Amino acid sequence: MVSAAAQLGVFAACVVLFVPMGLAGWHLSRNKVLFFSGALFLSLAVGVHLSPYLPSLPHLLLLSSSSSRLLPLPSSFSSSCVPLLHRVSWSDSSAGIIGGGGRSWSWPPSIASTCGLARVSKDDASVLLNGSWVMVAGDSQARLLVLALLRLLLDPAAAAAVEPELFRRHSDYRAAVPARGISVDFVWAPFESNLTRLLREDLRLAPRAPDVLVVGSGLWHMLHVGDARSYGDGLGSIADAARSLRSPLPVPPPHMFWLGLPRLVNHMLNTDAKRARMNDTMVRDYDLEVEQRGLLQRDGGPFLLLDVGKLSRGCGQQCTADGMHYDGDVYDAVLHIMLNALVIESQQRI
């Protein structure tokens, strides 16, 4: 965020630059060499005038960028740390206040110190996402990730107030953090065809692409279709549509994430149909399709995996009440992995 002193400096610089240039242009219109020489002198003077207020030109360009509004935080992040993002450790919370299951997570000290991985505070998250449009599309898993994000960005009372609207059945939801210009959209898109249409049609009509795009599917397909190959075909369409998602402006594509399937605890599922169709074998088959369809960055695809399956297995059976949806601990871990990944990607794009 640009300080008040910097804003005053910019205003003063504009006065110094444009008022004399306007007068010079009026009086020296017949002597273009003299006019442009004067303009060059004034421009240099403005640069000197602004230099005490603005730390560096790349930082100024990043702040004013209309493509990726993500502001990197000082750290030792590098692409070699991406594979380590999901290596979190779980432990019982002695206070029993972190999530419903009384479980907490952390990165091992060696990984945290080597890569600079850390929980992102509310203030740092607001700076990181300053001016960004975040879109999360999918099923109930995606809703829970949105809730984790809003709990981080908003004060507790405001975050609690959004839950009834956010969890309105089969509906979209939009929230905003006006002080930071952050927009958060949840799009109800439980099937792969919904996501493909969102990427291929709906977002093409939007004024610009989201800065951060998180999508995921599979649970509804597993329950209502139950064919892994058909699911894989849908993933291929999503990958193709995501690759072609470009803004009409010459800007980078969104930061894209794939929300993986959670661990399913079969005997805890709440209907006979779910217990019959949603088992470990089906989850393995569906996960294999994600691996093989060119969806993920590690395979040349557009999406970085948010491995909910690994995180939910780490948290354990005590972190779910229905065998499918997990306590806030898991989605808090997903969120912070995503935010740390955004810092890495933002550093790489500078």
TrEMBL record:
Membrane-spanning ranges = 6-26, 33-54
**Annotated Gene Ontology MF terms?**
acetyltransferase activity
What does the record list as GO biological process? Answer: xylan biosynthetic process
Keywords from the UniProt entry: Membrane, Transmembrane, Transmembrane helix
Q: Does the keyword Protease apply?
A: no
Query: Which PANTHER family does UniProt cross-reference here?
Result: N-ACETYLNEURAMINATE 9-O-ACETYLTRANSFERASE, PROTEIN ALTERED XYLOGLUCAN 9
What protein does this entry describe?
Pmr5/Cas1p GDSL/SGNH-like acyl-esterase family protein
